[in-house]
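Q: Predict the bound structure with tetrahydrodeoxyuridine.
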Amino acid sequence: MEKEFKTTFEVISGKNDLNEIEKKLYETAFEARENAYAPYSKFDVGCALLLENGEIVKGSNQENAAYPSGLCAERTTIFWTSANYPNMKIEKLFVIGAPKEAVSSVPIPPCGACRQSILEYEAKQETPIEIYFASLNGEIFKTKSIRDLLPFSFDASFL
Ligand code: THU
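A: Predicted complex:
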């Protein structure tokens, strides 16, 4: 017997089709990208999270001469958030990444390790985190939950 997973995502044609709060998150992720420390890959990534109290938290990728010691923008941001607001729910996460000098780009999805980390907090808070992956000046993809990006996910329910 063969079974299937179905993933759905929304394609938003550009920044002008976002609502006010989404636009603010997009701009914050864009700004956060300017603080990326990515001298090795020269691939700058910014992230912005919306908390249930309306606050926005931002972060960027931070690389290291010992390459594996660096961290992606999404994990930098979500770990800081959990460390500082341990009981605050996260409603939305925006990520925007592109090579340093790029003027246009495609939407970049969170890497596998970031998906697993985001899932941890989604499972903990028991409400979905909407994920938006944006391009510099074009389409934005949106999923309703990190589970749409991580089928067959491993979480604490197995332990
Ligand atoms: N990166 C992120 O920040 N997020 C992702 O989801 C994908 C990759 C960073 C890691 C590294 O600093 C650079 O992009 C190139 O992989």
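A: Strands lie at 10-12, 43-51, 56-60, 90-99, 130-134, 140-143.
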